[in-house]
């Protein structure tokens, strides 16, 4: 009769990405020689069910032929970026009758998958380019808020709109979520007027600043995200960072750099001749969310009251993208 297999121990997780990882464990030389299969039970951390695993002799979720360790586990169909998982392993020997002799489950190990890598962001960028539409001229960046916000900026912050941490809205794997600080600005305009829309879901006051104060030669532009929230329209998140700044140093290793003068989302064309003005354009068919990584003083622009309908919408803080949208999802999780 076949001798029992020992329980795998010293589980090690390494080379974790947004949709893959490698796993290894220790087992006796005898078990290493005779094991024919590995069973991997992988589940999201939430739930905390102590009976997470099925009956000990029923393989769950992943069954793999025994290979040298560490073993690669990958696949966007069950792994998502920035997600905590629990994993346990079981070794097995397939017998002549097709049944398995199995070990006990190892202890449960927890780990978290990573952000989108540069290759994944370039896939997302490719999708975003297809939805950008034509370029329209604009002249100001703006930020709509309620009166209490601007009062706080004046009295508590010395007139500075200070960078705040980016929340977890949008794509789950975007590297800037909860890691990069900035001031969110808009630049979209109305087709018929070329001006910012009068309506705002954020408040009746608007800070607006000439585009040239922020978008200039020594500023770098990065692509950060492309998403929708169960709506027909899509959002593109861009980061504006002065060259050499702390925000720029973060972005240059984490996000695709865009050419300021030639990209489908937000462009700056410097004057070509004396007396000409700079030309600024934005994409017409997506909503641009521009994260500027430095403080902005109110004195650099003006705060004006806007007339229009200002019904406050439900907050988009930490709102996730639609995982079923074929326009803005890539095959590495959501």
UniProtKB/TrEMBL annotation:
User: Sorted alphabetically, which keywords does the UniProt record give?
Assistant: Glycoprotein
- Annotated function: Its interaction with PHYH suggests a role in the development of the central system.
Q: Species name for this entry? A: Hucho hucho
Q: Which GO terms describe its cellular component?
A: cytoplasm
Tell me what this protein is called.
Answer: Phytanoyl-CoA hydroxylase-interacting protein
Q: Which CDD domains match?
A: FN3
Q: Which domain of life is it from?
A: Eukaryota
The record, for Pfam families, names: PHYHIP_C
Q: Which residues form the Phytanoyl-CoA hydroxylase-interacting protein-like C-terminal domain?
A: 112-334
Origin organism lineage: Eukaryota, Metazoa, Chordata, Craniata, Vertebrata
Q: How does it assemble?
A: Interacts with PHYH and ADGRB1.
Family to which the UniProt record says this protein belongs: Belongs to the PHYHIP family.
């Amino acid at each position: 009769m076949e001798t029992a297999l020992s329980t795998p121990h010293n589980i090690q997780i390494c080379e974790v990405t947004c949709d893959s990882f490698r796993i290894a464990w220790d087992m006796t030389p005898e078990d290493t020689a005779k094991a024919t299969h590995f069973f991997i039970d992988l589940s999201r951390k939430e739930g905390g069910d102590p009976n997470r695993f099925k009956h000990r002799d029923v393989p769950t979720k992943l069954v793999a032929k025994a290979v040298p360790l560490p073993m690669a586990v990958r696949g966007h169909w069950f792994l998502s970026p920035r997600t905590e998982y629990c994993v346990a392993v079981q070794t097995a020997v397939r017998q002549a009758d097709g049944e398995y002799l199995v070990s006990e489950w190892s202890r449960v190990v927890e780990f978290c998958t990573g952000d989108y890598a540069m290759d994944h962001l370039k896939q997302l960028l490719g999708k975003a380019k297809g939805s950008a539409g034509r370029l329209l001229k604009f002249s100001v960046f703006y930020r709509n808020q309620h009166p209490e916000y601007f009062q706080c900026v004046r009295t508590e912050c010395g007139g500075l709109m200070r960078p705040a941490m980016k929340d977890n809205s949008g794509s789950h794997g975007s590297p800037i979520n909860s890691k990069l600080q900035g001031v969110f600005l808009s630049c979209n305009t109305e087709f018929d007027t070329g001006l910012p829309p009068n309506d705002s879901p954020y408040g009746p006051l608007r800070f607006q600043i000439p585009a040239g104060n922020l978008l200039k030669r020594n500023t770098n532009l990065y692509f950060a995200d492309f998403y929708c929230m169960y709506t027909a329209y899509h959002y593109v998140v861009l980061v504006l960072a002065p060259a050499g700044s702390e925000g720029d140093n973060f972005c240059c290793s984490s996000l695709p750099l865009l050419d300021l003068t030639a990209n489908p989302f937000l462009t700056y064309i410097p004057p070509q001749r004396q007396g000409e003005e700079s030309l600024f354009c934005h994409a017409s068919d997506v909503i641009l969310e521009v994260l500027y990584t430095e403080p902005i003083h109110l004195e650099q622009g003006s705060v004006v009251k806007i007339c229009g309908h200002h019904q406050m919408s439900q907050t988009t803080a930490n709102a996730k993208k639609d995982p079923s949208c074929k326009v803005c999802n890539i095959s590495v999780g959501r």
